[in-house]
Amino acid sequence: MILDRDSVQKPIRIRLRRPDNWHNHFRQKGDPRFAPTVAYIARQFARANAMGNIDPPILTATQMIGYWNDIREVAKAAGFLDFKPLMVVMASPNTTPAMLTAAFSAGAYGVKIMPANATTNSAHGIIDYKDPKFLDVLRVTRDQRRTALFHAELPSRPRAVRERAFIPILDQIRKKIPDLKICVEHISDAQMVEWVINQGDLVCATVTPHHMSVTSDMADQDPHLQCMPYPKSLQDVFAVRTAAMSHPRFFYGSDNASHLRPAKERTDASPASGVFTAPTELPVLVELFEAHGHLDQLEEFLCERGAHWHGVPLNQGEIELVRNPWDVPDVIDLCNGHEIVPYNTIPH
Ligand SMILES: [Zn+2]
Fold first, then answer.
1. pLDDT of res. 2
2. Residue 11 pLDDT > 90, yes or no?
3. Count of domains in the chain?
4. Residue 25 Cα to ligand 1 middle (Å)
5. pLDDT value, residue 8
6. From CA 163, how far away is CA 301, in angstroms rounded?
7. Which residues are known catalytic residues?
8. 332-333 and 339-340: which strand pairing?
9. Residue 198 Cα, ligand 1 centroid: separation in angstroms?
10. Which residues contact 126 (CB under 8 A, 6 or more apart)?
11. What separation in Å is there between the alpha carbon of 315 and the centre of ligand 1?
12. What is the rounded distance in angstroms from the CA atom of residue 93 to the CA atom of residue 51?
């Protein structure tokens, strides 16, 4: 990474390897959020995850290839010819080893495990983590040297403790299948941070911009900051941020998840969960790492640790970020009046 600094030693230009985003929701063909989201993400990242909890969910190799084609098509139409979606399949109670083997052969780098009904489009998710069929899915993942990506929450518990309540389940899985590669997605809880650090090289975590900044008090005041796992205490934010800015097994996955204003600002029910980070991800990360004196860690966090951990080549080529004043709009019209509120830097 190269930093050009001005006379007061503030970086005015940063050049770094093209980055990766290891957790992201593009939405799907026919949805007004889909093409704008692909364009925002492909402009910033060489590769980005395409989480498969769309409707119907991505459960098979065939569905996954279809989704890959849809994303590539809109990325190309937006001028991002070499953008690479990073594909996974979702686990369901009916996933078989054969389905999973086919998906891995077709290029999936992992299988996503979501608790049933924990978040958007997760009705097909997992309920029984001791089910022999589920354990077979994990064994195939281990045998094929792919990754089990966990939304690590127990939805039956109060949201402040849902993530830490999942630690005993992960412990049981580690005991039964110790050589399984596990990624704890969108980590949010200081106890889980400690757990991941203590597990050794086969366990990693992805980190979102908002879980490095947003507390539960802030989210309570603003539906656009509400997501799952729900933001937690300042101590939790501090633990997540510290790990992101220092530890080789914590890397970037924004969990960008768009919801239009009516779904976020509704008063008759809880707001939809998810933060729309896509338009602002790299500027927000630069500001955050700079504010905490860790710009030196940004390239590792964004561009290297994830590739190293997953065993894929680093991206070739560089991007250049230039310091320019930019007022992030309060609201963006994605198309035809479909309004959405983008994530912005949280002051520190
Ligand atoms: Zn997600």
1. 77
2. no
3. 1
4. 6
5. 64
6. 23
7. 255
8. antiparallel
9. 24
10. 91, 92, 93, 113, 114, 115, 116, 134
11. 23
12. 18
Contact 295, 3 (CB under 8 A): yes
**Strand order in 11-17's β-sheet?**
2-5, 11-17, 318-322
Structural domain that includes position 25: 19-314+323-340
- Render pLDDT for 198-216 as a digit per residue (tens, 0 to 9): 999 999 999 999 999 999 9
- Per mean pLDDT, which range of 3-12, 47-56, 278-287 is the poorest? 3-12
206 Cα–ligand 1 center, Å: 10
Write down the pLDDT at residue 3.
73
Q: Is residue 4 part of a domain?
A: no
Q: What are the residue ranges of helices labelled H in the chain? A: 34-44, 61-77, 97-105, 132-143, 167-176, 190-198, 216-221, 234-244, 261-264, 281-291, 298-299, 305-310
Residue 148 has pLDDT above 70, yes or no: yes
Assign 182 a pLDDT band (cuts: 50, 70, 90).
very high
Kindly give the distance from the C-alpha atom of residue 23 to the centroid of ligand 1, in angstroms, as a whole number.
Answer: 6
Q: Is residue 31 part of a domain?
A: yes
Assign residue 331 the CATH number of its domain: 3.20.20.140
Residue 29 falls inside a structural domain: yes
Task: Note the pLDDT of residue 4.
Answer: 76
